[in-house]
Specification:
The chain has about 575 residues and is α/β, with parallel strands linked by helices. Strands 11-12-14-15-16-17-18-19 form an 8-stranded mixed beta barrel, surrounded by 4 helices. The chain has a 5-stranded mixed β-sheet with strand order 5-6-4-9-10, sandwiched between helices. The structure holds ligand C2E and calcium ion (CA) (2 copies).
């Protein structure tokens, strides 16, 4: 028997033989045998001892049933339950199990343990533009690369979608970051997809186990850190640490305060003038939400709008801004009927369903002409799949309002969205305006956006104009409109009313060098009209800040995910 018993099963069998000799008369078990060709046969074995009249063991009667197929299926099912079908990697269930064990073992050995959370950057865009099949293929290639990059003792799992988790046994913070760096570098090499080649990146968050670590806590911390990495520009690694924990907690408390802010009247709307570059007249104003919290002081929209989006509060807050802006516009139009207003819409508002009804309502209530309302949308809208917005945007368009593509040029396929959806206007992102005249690349880019927009009959506004030379360059390019601190900071509605009342014209031609004083919200006061003294900047107008284009918005928001 021993000759054709699977070597691993020999010792227990001998043990059982000994037990039978000691008087136990039968046993059954499942065990493995070897065929002459070396392949394994699983058998269900029943053995009984047959004794003679004197009660002495005479012989054994063994009954064997080949259960190889049944065992194979059971093994396969067990594997399926614990592995991801697409890549064959361990799934979330198995990950939880492995992580629990790794953590217990690390604790026993006083060893370190690192968890790396990985998320492919902009995978949705790849799926949308190349199709699901290509997306799946790409994920398999990524999985293979990750597997090749890590140590055999590490566990790599796929949580679903484009999320992977790596558990690094015996890993200090430095070692885990090092592993993450190797992973990022491996992922960056180009992939063959279909007939083409594409390049992708991943963002990584690293969390290290401390004495109190739990599997769920570690995963959550690594996930939080990963979202911060995304917010800070993707294709990078962030380590979960105390600062990150504090940031996450702060976000939680902001959410709580935001919930009450609308009722307590802590919001206001500031308006930033948009200037026509041929006439120097203000043709529009962008409504920008301001929050002055009694406990925290003024908080910039970039901090709280992502929070409001995540919690869904933006739907109510956004409706309020819309109402304020339209009411304000109807007052302004009594002074200047050609005045318009621009309102930013969040993805959540557009997805909420009744945006069309809401806009219709506000137009009726305030009696403003639809074409004097610009709705500013960003490309992030299209990250959520395109089909749904086709009809929503067309319905908005039917109401007669204007649609403006905000932050133009920063997204993935700005141009294709422009041809596909009924936009009337584009706003060139301030990141490009900032480079005007200074970097040839940005200058060329702005010039081509302006001429593209002109060819398509779109109104083009350059955002973030901060000095005369940018203004000169834009006028040279025949850009339609400009907006920026140089022309006017966001200001209270009354200040806009005042400018309209005085029919203020901006002096756009280059000022003599000595006059290059920093403007507050008026670039050059109209000399003929006595000018009211510039009001001190109200508290809700933020101090000048460096505006970074890649705002964390949704990404940082997701910091809150596990807290809620
Ligand atoms: P945005 O739509 O791109 O708005 C322009 C932002 O650039 C404003 O920041 C404005 O103050 C700032 N800005 C204007 N000119 C200059 C300049 O010359 N230099 C610099 N460095 N910055 C300039 P703000 O008011 O902090 O708003 C930030 C973002 O928050 C907005 O970006 C918009 O995405 C969002 N936001 C603001 N109000 C609302 C709102 O009512 N609803 C929604 N959904 N989003 C809003
Ligand atoms: Ca905007
Ligand atoms: Ca913008």
């Amino acid at each position: 028997w021993a000759e054709f018993t699977h070597p691993d099963d020999v010792p227990p069998r001998q043990e059982l033989g000994a037990r039978m000799a000691a008087g136990h008369d039968s046993y059954e078990e499942e065990r493995r045998y070897l065929r002459p060709d070396g392949s394994v046969v699983w058998a269900s074995v029943h053995v009984a001892c047959v004794r003679d009249e004197a009660g002495e063991p005479g012989y054994y009667l063994a009954y064997l049933q080949d259960i190889t197929e049944r065992t194979r299926m059971a093994t396969e099912l067990a594997h399926l339950a614990l592995h991801d079908t697409l890549t064959g990697l361990p799934n979330a269930t198995l990950l939880a199990d492995r992580l629990t064990h790794a953590l217990a073992s690390a604790r026993r050995r006083s060893a370190q343990l690192g968890v790396i959370f990985l998320d492919v950057d902009r995978f949705k865009v790849i799926n949308d533009s190349y199709g699901r099949v290509a997306g799946d293929d790409l994920l398999c290639q990524v999985a293979a690369r990750l597997t090749a990059t890590i140590r055999a003792s590490d566990t790599l799992a796929r949580l679903g979608g484009d999320e992977f988790v790596l558990v690094c046994d015996d890993s200090s913070g430095q070692a885990a970051e090092h592993t993450a760096q190797r992973v990022l570098a491996a992922v960056r090499r180009p992939y063959r997809v279909g007939n083409g080649e594409i390049t992708i990146t991943v963002s990584a968050g690293v969390a290290l186990a401390d004495v109190n670590a739990t599997p769920q806590g570690l995963l959550r911390d690594a996930d939080d850190a990963m979202h911060v990495a995304k917010g800070l520009g993707r294709d990078r690694i962030e380590l979960f640490d105390e600062a990150l924990r504090i940031a996450a907690e702060q976000l939680l408390s902001i959410t709580a305060a935001l919930r009450r802010a609308l009722e307590l009247g802590e919001f206001s709307v500031a308006y930033q003038p948009v200037i026509d570059l041929t006439t120097g007249a203000m043709v529009s104003a962008e409504a920008l939400l301001r929050w002055d919290s009694p406990d925290r002081g003024p908080i910039g929209p970039e901090q709280f709008i992502p929070v409001a989006e995540k919690s869904g509060l933006i739907i109510k807050i956004g409706a309020w801004v819309l109402e304020q802006a339209c009411r304000q516009l109807s007052r302004w139009q009594r002074i200047d009927p050609s005045m318009t207003v621009a309102v930013n819409l969040s993805v959540r508002q557009v997805m909420a369903g009744d945006i069309v009804g809401q806009i219709k309502g506000v137009l009726t209530r305030t009696q403003i002409r639809p074409e004097s309302l610009y709705l500013e949308l960003t490309e992030s809208l299209f990250m959520h799949g395109i089909a749904h917005f086709d009809t929503t945007l067309a319905d908005l368009k039917d109401l007669g309002v204007r649609l403006s593509l905000d932050d133009f040029g920063t997204g993935y396929s700005s141009l294709s969205y422009l041809s596909r959806f009924p936009f009337d206007a584009v706003k060139i992102d301030q990141a490009f305006t900032r480079g005007l005249g200074a970097t040839p690349h940005d200058t060329a880019l702005v010039a081509s956006i302006v001429s593209m927009a002109e060819a398509r009959g779109l109104t083009v506004t350059a955002e973030g104009v901060e000095d005369q030379s940018q203004l000169d360059t834009l006028r040279g390019m025949r850009c339609d409109r400009a907006q920026g601190f140089y022309l006017g900071r966001p200001m209270p509605a009354d200040a806009i009313t005042d400018l309209l009342t005085r029919s203020h014209r901006w002096q756009l031609a280059a000022a003599p060098p000595r006059a290059a004083s920093p403007p507050i919200y008026e670039h050059t006061p109209a000399p003929a009209v006595p000018t009211a003294p510039a009001p001190p900047p109200p508290p809700y107008i933020r101090a000048p800040c460096t505006f970074t284009r890649r705002r964390p918005s949704r990404d940082v928001m997701r910091l809150l995910r596990t807290g809620e």
